[in-house]
Amino acid sequence: MIVYNTLGRKREEFKTLEKGKVKMYVCGVTLYDECHLGHGRAYIVFDVIRRYLEWEGYEVLYVQNFTDIDDKIINRAKEEAKSEKEIPEKAREIVERYKESYFRDMDALNIKRADIYPSATEFIPEIIVAVEKLLKKGVAYSGNGDIYFSVDKFPSYGKLSGRKKEELMPGARVEPEEKKKDPLDFALWKSAKPYEPCWDSPWGKGRPGWHIECSVMSLKCLGETLDIHGGGEDLIFPHHENEIAQSESLTGKKFVNYWLHNGFVTVRGEKMSKSLKNFFLLRELLNQYPPQAIRFLILSTHYRNPLDFDLAHLETALRGWKRIEECILKSEEILGGGKTGKLEETKYIQEFRDVMREDFHTPQALRVIFDLVSELNRYLSRGEKSPEAFSLFNDLKTLLEVLGFALPEKLTLPPHLEKLIREREEARKRKDYQTADRIREQLLREGILLQDTPRGTVWRKK
What we know:
Blueprint lengths: L1 E4 L4 E4 L7 E6 L10 H19 L3 E6 L6 H10 L6 H22 L15 H13 L3 E4 L2 E4 L15 H4 L17 E6 L14 E3 L1 H13 L3 E7 L3 H16 L4 E7 L2 E3 L2 E2 L10 H7 L2 H9 L7 E2 L2 H25 L11 H10 L5 H20 L5 H16 L12 H15 L3 H13 L2 E6 L2 E6 L1
Parallel strand pairs: 3-4, 3-9, 9-10, 11-13
Antiparallel strand pairs: 1-2, 5-6, 6-7, 7-8, 11-12, 14-15
Helix pairs in contact: 2-3, 4-6, 6-7, 9-10, 10-12, 11-12, 12-13, 14-15
């Protein structure tokens, strides 16, 4: 299996630290707002990578954190709190609100739950110990009550982004109250400001910096060296660069063997972001489109490439999913849902494996699925219940499950609605189109759409 490793910017053969096991950490959300399509892309991508590795027989330990203390959370709390004293409680309330919102959206997208969801505030004692170690090693220093990591003390800083220190300097910022020795130095611990959430530490009350949170959570949950660390392309610098510096300074060992990053979601060529107000909330899209269409859209582009989004692309994805869905429902109707036993290494299974082993090439995997659907439809059009048809149907379900698609189920209607459909069919036979149209409108109000076909009337939920 070949993966593209951001560290070194090259394709590499995938070899795990421990045979048959994968330790995988993916940066999670900061709990201050609703998730947008960019979040959806990241977590669908790493959901598929995890599912595929598990299908290949790996035992995957998947950890995804929550950032539950951060400037963005505090700023939102300040906006919502009625008084300064309410800020800490309001921050906790915001965290719980958006954690619930996160799970609602990700569950709808059929994203498997992580094995562990650590939150930064659960690891404050461990974070303090880590900062103390970095101070003792001389790679961190105190400035104006804050603790900073000294980038100069980590000679290979910049190795993930592939940029030298002088190239990174123009983007570095120094806030007026900061006492940094170098603009690239970053906060490990921030001293408390009035009415903000804080914890006791050897340096006084304060809270952890963003980067140290992820280092400590990953080290505690997965060990000193990880097989895979994932996240969006925007996290390469400074977040993941800083994670490497502080983690390898703590342990003296390589932090991560394979860094995987998904590309940006763009809108008309511009990166989708809240600051540009060109983002699409997942909740709004899920209210308009089935989650399988969103997953289909995201997997139609290779995970490392930019995904330029507009609703027309989502409509195209919906049509693609509908073709697959109709094939599954027709197969259920003609062949039934039972599997024929242990899956053999069929042509389509092997083709799927070949393309997914090339850096998880999901667009090519979807092409394999459509080839399979085309062949299966030829059997279905003849109503053929041959072993070949059963094998194709089983392959189709297997490959869709590996890509994380929730398979459609044959839906049933309440008896009173089935009766209305029969009455309408009888009215059409009598050429009583006025009654037939009236029943169609009645069913539409019940959320049932009808389509008259040569094989009879079919229905689907609105």
